[in-house]
Fold this protein.
Amino acid sequence: PVPARRQRRVASASSLDTENTTPSLAPNQMQTYAEILVNSSKIKPSWITGLSVFPDGKILLADYHNSRMVLYSSDYDQLSEILVQTAPYDVTVIDDSSFMITRPEFAQSVVSGSVVDGRLRLGASLKTSFQARCLNFNEGYLAVCSSSIVEILEKDQEFWTEKNSHSFVRSKFTYVAVDGQRKNIFLTDQKYPEPQLICLSFSGEVIWRFVHPDLNFPTGVAFSDTRVFVASWDRCAVLELGLEGDYHGVIFRDIRYPWTIAVGSDHNKLVVSQHKNTLPDEIKRSVKLLQFECEPEM
């Protein structure tokens, strides 16, 4: 990424060729308390690339391979399913009944949506200067990203206005999470040869970078109050960090190739999808709901 005035690299490792390395386990582990099995499609095996949770606990997911959005109740019953003309990749909840999605293969790549009487509806598109792949909303701010561009928008009543935009070189951003209160964003970057998790200020300053053998191929990322969660795909693990980049360790390992993650409505729970081309279809359609074995200390 572009040079920054202040950068701290944390938990760095001299080599990432560490397939047999024992992961660093966090003291407080998560466990599966529920599971959603998305209904199978006659088109293709599912690839659940987007997850987001409404304040009342409803779960919204994007199934990229089958060009569909699916909504589940807080009891994990399917409420609604819609087909999207161009495949949706990521999704983020905006408020009690509205959300936004990305469609990376379409010029108008960011689209708004809403839940009306328990049914999903798509609305107007949001103009961006690039084709967006991932997005996340928090505390009034929306971050929209491609593999190399980050755009931060703020909602002014009914309209979105661009607040900051930053371009990077040699980056391969995968997912983004926003901390609107502190005006920071967290980006998973799969760049070779040193994949990383980056904390970036709204102004474009790289605050810290996390590079570690436990994070050899980062995918999904989520923010919750004082913690950042990141999916380590090839390590089949979910990691936890503090807001200063301090590494707490692996918090969940009972999963097959975690792809995207989202924080639950009570901030101490996670929702995680799984994907690898060689996995059985049933696992690709499985979304795990996680909670801590002990109540986290705040």
Summary: Residues 8-13+24-292 form a domain with the Neuraminidase fold (CATH 2.120.10.30). The first strand starts at residue 8 and ends at 10.
